[in-house]
Structure formats: C-alpha cells, structure tokens
Amino acid sequence: MDFVELEAIEGLRWSWNSWPVSKTESNDLVIPLSIMQTPLMKFNDLPLLSYDPLICSRCGSVLNPYARVDYPSRIWVCPFCYQKNSFPRSYAEIGENNIPAELFPTYSTVEYQLGHQGLMTPKRINSNPVHNWETSNGLGLVKLNSSSFSSSSLSSLDQRGVGGRGLGLGIGIGIGPVFVFVVDACSSEDELQALKNELLLIVAQLPENAMVGLVVFDAMVRVYDLGFTECLRVVVFHGERNLSSSQIIDHLGIHPTKQQLGKTQGVQKHGLILPISECEFNITTAIEDIRHSSPLKLGQRSPRCTGTAILVAIALLEGCSVHTGSRVMVFTSGPATLGPGMVASQDLNNSIRTHRDINSGHAPFHWKSCEFYKQISEKLTDLSMVLDLFACSLDQIGVTEMRAPVEKSGGFIMLAESFESDQFRKCLRHMFSRDQEGFLNMCFDATIEIITTKGVKICGAIGPCVSLHKKNASVSEKEVGEGGTNTWKLGTITDKTCIAFFFQVSEEQKPQPGTAFFIQFITRYRHGNMGIRKRVTSAARRWVSGGAPEIAAGFDQETAGAIMSRLAVHETAKNFPREVVRWLDKELISFASKFGDYIPEDPSSFRLSTNFSLYPQFMYHLRRSQFIDVFNSSPDETAFFQVMLNREGVVGSLIMIQPTLSQYSFDGPPIPVLLDVCSLSPDVILLFDSYFYVVIHYGSKIAQWKKLGYDRDPNHESFRKLLEAPELEVEQLVGQRIPVPKLIRCEQHSSQARFLLAKLNPSVTHKSSYVDGSEVIMTDDVSLQVFIEHLQELAVQG
C-alpha cells in the first residue's frame, strides 16, 4: 500500500489504515489511532464549486461520494447517521449519468465558495442563480462520459462586495487583510536599516486594499497616525504600564460605534489603520523615520516593552473593528526588559534564563511572562487575530514565553541571527507572495470540524489550533492535546499546515469486521481574496478483527514516527526530558513485543517485518533530537523547534527527527547513505539536511583539491561539476522550505563539522577498537546497533 499516493488523493496520512473493532484491541496497538491532515493541501484536480454544500439535517455532514443516492426519488442517505435527505429543486436534473461533482467517486475532496466570491477580480464568474443542467460542461455536474470537469455556478451569489465583520464597501471595492507592523527601535543601526528596507519593499508590493498600521517601541510605545498629512504624529504609551484594551482604545481616541441591527459593521474611519492606497506615502515616511534608540551605559540591556507594544497593537485592531484577516507582526532583536511580558532585567550581569533555571525555579520573570502571554493567546483566539514573530538576534529574546500566542493563533515564527540575513529576507517575502489572481497567499479565520461514524470517538488534536469545546456524541472523554471538541479554530492556515488528530474506538457498540467507517473533515476559512470557502474531505477505511493481517499491512511507520514525536513534544510541557525518554522507551518496547516475531527469552530470534522495521530507528533518533534532548539548546531554540515540528507534515517531520544524508563522489550520481560516522570519507562530499540547517561537508582530500584551485583548471572539469552538484541541490531545498534553513559549508575535521557529527550514529567512538583510517566520534551515546540489541533483549522478555 503506497501511503504517499493516498495522501496525494486525500491529504491524509493514517498511522493505521485498518482499525480493530474493539477499544481493547486498539489500545494493544500501542501507536494511537491517528490521522495527520493537511487541510489546504494543493491538489492537481480540486473542483472549486460556486454553490453552497448540501448538509445532512441530523449530523451536519456534507454530501459526499459515500452517500447512497436514490435518483428517481431525489433522496440521499447520509453515510454517517443514515438520515434520509432530499435534494433541493436546483438538483432537478440529477441522474446516474449526470451527477454533481461532490458525488463523483474520484473527488474525495471538494471546495465550495460560500455566499460571495470575495474581492472583485477582472475575471468575474457567472452568477446565474439557476442550475444550468443542460450545458455539456456540467456546471457542477460531472457527466460520466466526460473527461473534464468545470466548476458550476449553482445557487445565487452575493454580488454586494465583501460582507462580514468590518467589510462590505460596495461592488468592486473591499477591505483586504490588515497588517500592523510592530518594530523594535532598540535594534542596532545596521540591523534597523536592513529591517526598514525590507518593510518598505513589502509595503510597496501590498495590494491596494490591504490595510496597514505601524507601532514602534523601545522604552515607550508609539502608534503612528497614518492619516495625518501635516507632519508625523504619534500616540505614545509608557512601556511599563499594563493597560486594558478599553483604556488603550480610549487613549488612541477611537470611539467604536454600536452595530445596528441588520447593518454590516464597517471599519472605523481614522488614521491609525488605513488602506495602503490612502497612506502609502505616509507609512513609507514613517518607516524611514524610525531611529535607533539612544545608546545605553555599558553593562545594560536596551529597555524594551515588547509585551506592551503587542497589547497596544491588538487593542488598535480591536478598536477599529478589524478582526478577521488581521496580523500583528512583531520584529525584534532582543528580550523584553520592562513592562508586562518582560523576560530579563536590564542589568547584563543577570543572564537570561536557561533550561536549568526554568526547571529549578530560578527564572524570576518566566512564569509571570508566560501567564501574560497566555492571556494574549486567548484574546487573539477570541478576536480571530494572528501574531507573527520575527526574532533576529544572537541572544535569546523570549520566544519561550511568547510561544503560546504565536502557536495557538497559527502565526509564523522564525529565529535568525540578523535582519540582514537571507533567511529573514526570504521568509518575509515568501509570506507576502501572491497567487495567480494577484491575491496574497494567506488564509484566515479557519475552523476544522470532524464528522465520524458512530463507532469512532474523537480524542483531540495537536498542532497550531485551539479547541472550541463543541461536544457531541462523537467526542471522547479522553483528551489528547486540544480535546473535548469536534471543532477547532486556527487564526491562519497555509497549504503546508498539518494537524494531528487522535481517535479511539467506541465502547458503546461493536462494529462488524469488514464493514466500512467514515471520517469527514470540513475546513471553513477565509481565502486571500477575503471570500469564504469550505473544503470538505471524506475518507473511508475498514474495520477488522484484532489479529487480522490487514492491521500490519496498513501500518504507516513514517506517520507513526511523526505522531509519536508530537506526543513526545506534548509531554515535554508537563515532564522533564528524562521522563519523556523513559515513556518513549516503554512504548517502543511494548510495540516491539507486540509486533515482533521471536522465541521467548531468545533475543537472537527477534525479527520485525519490513512494515515495522524502520520505526525503532525513528525512535532512536527522536530520543537524541533537539526536541527531547535540550542540552546545548537555549529555551528559545527549543520552543522554535517544537513549534515547527507541531505544524509540519510527515515528510518534513521525519527530516527533523532523522535527517537525510547524500553522498557525492566521482564514482557516479549522488546516492543516499547511512546517517552514520562510517559514511565520512576524505574523497566524497556529503549533503546533510536536518530541515533547520543544511550542511555541505567536504572530505579532507576534496577540501585540499579545492584550495589548490583544481576546480578552476579546465583539465579537471569533472571536479568542478562534482562541487556544483550539491550546490544545485541546496538551491532547490532552500527555495522550497519556509523558514529557510541555515546553510553551512564545512571541511572534514573543522569546527563547523560539529553540525553534522552531532547527528551521526556513533557506531565508532573513542571506546571502540580502532580501525586504521576510520573516523571517530567522541561521545558516550549508545549507537543504533547497541540500542536495537537492548530493545530485542527487553522485547522478548514478554
């Protein structure tokens, strides 16, 4: 079974593709019943339907290919609750040879445009309110003898422009997404100039309907009035004051009007947040005017009130009645040292907290700051706003404390050394890239609802989402991550965002082996054109008895590795790393004992089938990874790594856990090699990809030839091509991945080679018998071979 091909069809990866019929049997599987979903995965052939979906009157599921349809009676039976539903009049021409796209067997995923089409584009779609079933292109119907699909114009469309909160300014005109730039003025002059240049570039490329605001902070917070043309005018807040939203709104001079019944609430007209078409000159002038704060005494940190600045930015959006589709983008280069959310004192003699300080209770500002940002996170969720964090500094800036609002709102987070780095520039520009129609590649205010058959219970989700605490009969009492609900909220979502959902088998009724069960994911979100869309993915799998061979055949060990890594990261929030490692070991031993073939008490007889053989290897590398082993990582780095793991898909997660290693040599094309110290050789080039950084490692002979300039000699053309090959591969990696990985070029035995050596399996160490010419890693870590031997010994003990 090719799980990658299935993912390309459904956008789903299942840890188990066949589920046992009882709760006890499912618990014996060790790896939980789970699905990793990429809600907005790009599909080659995704039908976009310009009409509202048909909803089951009992369970709320959407019409899908698994529904039974009685064409003569125009009735469809819901596969989830078996409710009979009637087709509306607009489906009068439905028949076995003329079916709507949502019933076509190859479309397990369809997408609907709801109500209106969003902001007007030059290409307007047909808004005929009647289903035109007579045309040969289908208009939402798919004729079985037709090889092409064309989206329909079923149901009437709202041509009044963009509706919703803070929107609705007439035909052809609408308010786009809103961006409040929160800039740290304490950055050095060179850093600040690089940041300003990038912001000016972004502002110049924003769509005309995008709205912008500017907040600058140091010891004070300054909100720029972009509508005042006589000079630069700002509203100033003291950085140490913890003000409520109403106090900030009142101080800003914003007076929200009460929404009248039946009328759409509009954007408050004032100069603090304006469409870019009205304030491009003013905001450009304001950005250019940002100056580096005056230098401090030696031994002092800059006075930063990051928390207050974020509070002011959120209150600014709240007061302007601009909620959905708004982002607060924080650009900072140091820790907050005053006001709410401070993480360090201004005295440099007091170092910023480490993992040991946090664990031992010697981080005086940590817990109070975490509580402050937890409140910020809840407010962002309530208001459907997003917080993005760009932290560019050699030191920590407080990402650990700010993790909750960024992760829960789905915001973007990046750590870099400088605003002048390519990493920062490429990430920021990628965020503001546009689609083919000219709209920003951003989606906002998403909700994901899951509908299941009666035998399946929903336990929860781990990812950049928040539980909405909507319970029904399908919600389990057991909670995993964000649980106690069948609906989750995301402030923003991309085509790469991946969420892990956890399930269990119901005890109430036992299904029959061989029968099918169904799960439907309904993702509702606001598109970059500010129109509302609903994507529906329907999937089916089979129930099997506990010992059936289909269970082993349907095990996806790559997905299992990604799922267990998220669970382990979730455990680190409550337990120390050593306890998490013990938990992983215990689960792995149980797994090996359950699915291994062996003679009891005979480790040499232990075997795992190919479907399971890679999983122990994933767990070995997970135990050693920066997600669990925080030694040599700062709290900020650990928080960043864990946030990225919790939103990455299966392939990206596995690269983070077990990096890839490719070898380039004169012997032939590049080949993948073992992530082992034995792969090091003086006459090869190694390309190492750990997701967050990419290493090009030159063997000692290759490095020597390069220093001698052989690559510039026409007689050594093959050597030049050998050097170019990994560079070309790196360009592709860097171009596809956000955040952009750090590129490291190093020679064998150089100090930078540690980035590679730290991740290699130490099969040869200083304790091993020396083999002439072999590379040695100085470590006390056990090798993969020793780890597997211990696993076999413990697994066969029963």
UniProtKB/TrEMBL annotation:
For biological process, the GO terms are: COPII-coated vesicle cargo loading; intracellular protein transport
SUPFAM superfamilies reported for this sequence: beta-sandwich domain of Sec23/24 (SSF81995), C-terminal, gelsolin-like domain of Sec23/24 (SSF82754), Helical domain of Sec23/24 (SSF81811), vWA-like (SSF53300), Zn-finger domain of Sec23/24 (SSF82919)
Report domain Sec23/Sec24 helical positions: 556-653
Molecular functions (GO terms): GTPase activator activity; zinc ion binding
What are the annotated GO cellular component locations?
A: COPII vesicle coat; endoplasmic reticulum exit site; endoplasmic reticulum membrane; Golgi membrane
Has UniProt tagged this entry with the keyword Endoplasmic reticulum?
yes
Location comes to: Cytoplasmic vesicle, COPII-coated vesicle membrane; Endoplasmic reticulum membrane; Golgi apparatus membrane
Indicate the principal place this protein occupies in or around the cell: membrane
- Provide the family line: Belongs to the SEC23/SEC24 family. SEC23 subfamily.
Protein name listed in UniProt: Protein transport protein SEC23
